[in-house]
Write a structure and sequence with these properties.
Elements (H helix, E strand, L loop, with lengths): L2 H9 L4 E5 L3 H13 L2 E5 L3 H8 L12 H11 L2 E4 L10 E4 L15 H13 L5 E4 L7 H14 L8 E4 L9 H7 L2 E5 L2 H11 L7 E5 H32 L3 H8 L22 H10 L8 H10 L1 H16 L7 E5 L14 H11 L3 E5 L10 H5 L4 E4 L4 H4 L3 H4 L7 E4 L6 H6 L3 E4 L6
Parallel strand pairs: 1-2, 1-4, 2-3, 4-5, 5-6, 7-8, 9-10, 9-11, 11-12, 12-13
Antiparallel strand pairs: 6-7
Helix pairs in contact: 1-8, 2-4, 5-6, 9-11, 9-12, 13-14
The structure holds ligand SAJ.
Amino acid sequence: MNIETLQKNIELKTATIGVVGLGYVGLAVACKFAEAGFAVLGLERIPEKVQMINDGILPIRGQEPGLEALLLQVTQRGNLSVTTDLSQLERADVVLVAVETPVDLDSKVPNYEALNAALASIGSVIKPGTLVIIESTIAPGTMRGIVCPALEKTSGLKVDHDFFLGHCPERVMPGRLLRNLAEMSRVCGGNTPETSQVMASLYRHIVQAELDLTDSVTAEMVKTTENAYRDVQIAFANEIALICEKVGVDVWHLRDLVNKSPDRNLHLPGAGVGGHCIPKDPWLLVHSANGTGGTPPSLIPTARLLNDGMPRHMADLVLEALAEVGCSIQDAKIAVLGYAYLENSDDTRNSPSQTLISHLQTIGAEVVIHDPYVADFQGEVTEVIRGVDAIVVMVRHSLYQALDPASLKPLLNYPILIDGRRVFDPETLAQLGFVFRSIGWGKA
Ligand code: SAJ
């Protein structure tokens, strides 16, 4: 099939779409194309997950408005079916790849194990005329240096002649998967301008926002840059918070005043930066720059390390408060509220809470955990904190924002509360007699 025929089949929605990897990104995009009327074949390696999805059951626990109903609708209509059998991909005219691309936390090098496996499988079954689009976030240069050679080698096909290739990074986030998919603009980075055009005609079926055509390496840079930008902005807010703690200023009040200045947007300081995007994408960007010789980037790695240090700062605040009441860390039982990386989500990937909990346990504390969205840590929050020596709030779940600190205090052995997300008003905590610390609260 030539590219014109492919474009026609996409416009008529007679093209079959394969989606490899049904995580947060893949499942949402598979549902949206199925909803648009395409025949969508999902490829997932976990059999239990395949069964759940084919039964119209959402394997994601967090709040994802509309996704469960949409999944049921498209599976019942037969537009979406899921399998573990990669050979089924030979039916696909378009293959979207949405597999994880983590970064090894020690070496800071991309781990492309899942991507390479997907490429090997796809290359072994794709037919001429297929369009392959990488949605996963990848280091700039990966399309040219890894993806294209791998597909050509395993398929024996020639890019731009026998098959077509592009990168279209996603801009979703847990809690807003369907909304972001529909409302966020996307970059269509084709191996050739013609391929970018075909990509745009595909995504036009599910994206109401702008589709920006460009080359694949620019597309790789867009995604990693936008997330490195956010990480650096958060790190700046965290550094200002740490300064506020020292000079006796409330960073939240400071932020309100600073952000009145035009083009200022001091981000939210907090207990750390988690998730599947922000902690890793800056390293993907740095990895590409480091591979080209010359002076390595410094601001981006420094920001990453500052943000990664915030859970440790939370532990230091716990130690300070325990010392104030004369309780040693070895004798302390600490309740950590929030295990997910983001409010009202079940996503625990790279959660700052994991880092904090490991450290507290290493220095001798007993730790109990609560999170209303994470299966292992659900339950009545007042029962979890009953009798503990300190509460540490790590996530702004709505449930915690609704708590009345006055009702919590009698449950505690010591009235210690360490607030990593400014869930509680420090003045109120002071009036109630808490021994408290709050990120960026310098008036202690
Ligand atoms: N965080 C802060 N301070 C802030 C913002 C976030 O400490 O001012 C923390 C959060 O608590 C969380 C982490 O950073 O632990 C990441 O939060 P996030 O709001 O960036 O949420 P993510 O990780 O889901 O980021 C995604 C990204 N989207 C994509 O990669 C497609 C990011 O580029 C978006 O800006 C973000 O969603 C969004 O808010 O839309």
